[in-house]
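ARCHIVE CARD
Drawer: 12
Card no.: 0347
Subject: one protein chain, sequence and derived structure
Cross-reference: see card 0346
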Amino acid sequence: MELSNEEIRRYSRHLILPEVGLAGQKKIKSTSVLCIGAGGLGSPIAMYLAAAGVGKLGLVDFDTVDFSNLQRQILHGTEDVGRHKGESARDTIKSINPGVEVVLHSVRLSAENAMDIIRQYDVVVDGTDNFPTRYLTNDACVLLKKPNVYGSIFRFEGQASVFAPHLGGPCYRCLYPEPPPPGMVPSCAEGGVLGVLPGIVGCIQATEILKLAIGKGTSLIGRLVLFNALDMKFKELKLRRDPQCPLCGDHPTITELIDYEVFCGIPTEPVNPASNPDEVTVQDMKKAMDDPKLGIKVIDVREPDEYQITHIAGVPLHPLSTLPQTFTNLDPNTQYYIHCKSGVRSMKALKFLQEQGFKYTKSVKGGINAWSDEIDHSVAKY
């Protein structure tokens, strides 16, 4: 695979590196990478790989660009809000380097399609933000003997590694044999993330991919890098393959892809979502607030910082984080409608209060975001 004169000019700073050179740049050009996710991590990964001259870049993403993405997902601009992320990402990548072949996979990665998609690429990079897709990606990569360049972020902390049992290292299951209980680890939408953090972790992932492509340096295989942005500190943990790992161990029991939603304990969506007896709608919440005679009180279980951003007038704050200490201030014989940002934490609060003997609690489906969408647009969404 030869380089054109234009490519020689474009990649000149690579070519004069003895560790890369002409031969290394040709290897980069001949490498195909599948990026799962075109969001926070996928943005720096895709942009830097495109700039570096990776020949083929696949993008798996079925989502659309939201305003809340723009704080960190630099593949997308303000004018892209509402567009499909894959299409927005493709345009950005093409503007960086029109010589890169961009392949869009505008689907949700699943056990049904993962093997067919992943086997088309040399390296897979994990830019996902949920556990089912993370385990699915890991398992498919191990079964297909593809390097899985892993990264994850939350609030001010990130981590990165390369999982590749076929190259002598462990897999993701060796590090995390079991997923956490559903809802135990908040998403970035619930817990927040410093905007530059995915740039740092994503650049580490992109670096590892280029090193794998040219076959130089010491990779993160067998090592986990931990980064704390607040302290500006990096730590490193050594990882070893677990001989008892059900996927890459000495006697594997997982030989094909499984149902990852079930594995991660995520319940199947009911046919009629409104049938959940523990949930009410924002319309129900409005009726309760408009008619005090109903005797229903509404409480907000978000955190104080979120309450300062936006709140519904007249709704008191009872943060979920302090509820175990403050629930005694509530009346177990009163009916409460509980809301949070989107309905996740309010359901946790409901379960906790039920365990304390509160019989008349309901979680508001969709939380304050649904209130903003359906009841009062003046309430800010965040």
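Annotation on reverse: The first strand starts at residue 32 and ends at 36. The chain has a mean pLDDT of 95.
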